Amino acid sequence: MRAPTWTPRGRSADAILAVAMFAAVAAVTAVPTSRGPGPDMVPGLGWVLTVIACGALYWRRTHPSAVLWTTMVAAGLYYPVSEPDGPLMLTFVFALYNAAARGRVLASALGAGAALALVAYGEIRSDVNHLEDAALWLLAGWFVAVVAVGGVVHNRLAYLREAERRAAAAEHGREEEARRRATEERLRIAREVHDVLGHNISLINVQASAALHAGESDRSTAALEAIKQASKETLRELRTTLGVLRQVDELAPTGPAPGIARLAELAGRATAAGPAVRTEIEGEPRPLPPETDLAVYRIVQEALTNVTRHSDAASVLVRVRYTGPEVAVAIEDDGRPVPARTTGTGSGIEGMRARAEALGGTFEAGPGEDGGFRVRVVLPVQSRRVRPEM
Description:
- The model is unreliable at 34-40, 246-253, 340-346 and 385-390 (pLDDT under 50).
- This protein has a five-stranded mixed β-sheet with strand order 1-2-3-5-4, covered by helices on one side.
- The chain is α+β, with helices and mostly antiparallel strands and 390 residues long.
- It is built from twelve helices and five strands.
- Helix content is 63%, strand content 10%.
């Protein structure tokens, strides 16, 4: 079934309600009764009060309490002067419901009580009883029911508004969470790109310098071969890292992810750049969470990059030790530490520290016990990723 193209809302609906109510009251009043023709027996004041009571409904949304008292006064003045009685009481009953439905429950209850008191007073003072005792109690019951229904409607609408507000707040929270996650992912990708390019380009730079100053052809050839391998590895890891930014219908490279299993390969490339790198694995190797495995690789990579850039070390020892719920990694060289490395500052050191702390681990960097420089990190096997400060 096709929905109507236009339905009255707001002021238009209120105006239609007022006109319809007046038409209904006037139509019932105009029906002849056994006591004579109706409209001729209703004085002009009765029609004025009818117009006032029905017209007041136009402001039912903005002034529900005022509409309630207006319709009550109009009905209270109408019935003593009009004969036969018209159904003007309907305007007051609707005003009772409207006030309660719009949160004016107390005003609605007071209005119902005042109306009942006026009706009872009129019955007592009048020589003719218009209402039987049962009818008076029935009227009171109707007033109570109307006020109760209005209060229930008000509570229901308030509940729906609160549910909509919470749904909107939840949707806003999901959007904020999505933006936060996107920011974290961009930071992670930036850190990965920095680590990949920083390490491998540093090796390329060192090997290029060695090739330019080499006196023997064998050493020059070895340096150029190392440049070739380092640049190839740089491109491969860069494609892997940036693969998450590709469109869903593009295929990203599927090479093995960096981790502890590839430390020997990393040590080989670093050895080709100058210092001899040796790796040792202690304890029983076991699978690590992907983020922990990657963090170990990147921290070793950054430490070896710092050795290549800032140290005259001849050898480097990379030791990985599995101990219960943790994995400990130490990178030690035998060079002379320069002040920039000794202070433990700089983007490289801070990047390694951030990786370790993001997984709930600890990080230390400083001079070694026997000279040189040492980097030590302990990571939990079950990572406890903490949210970075924004």
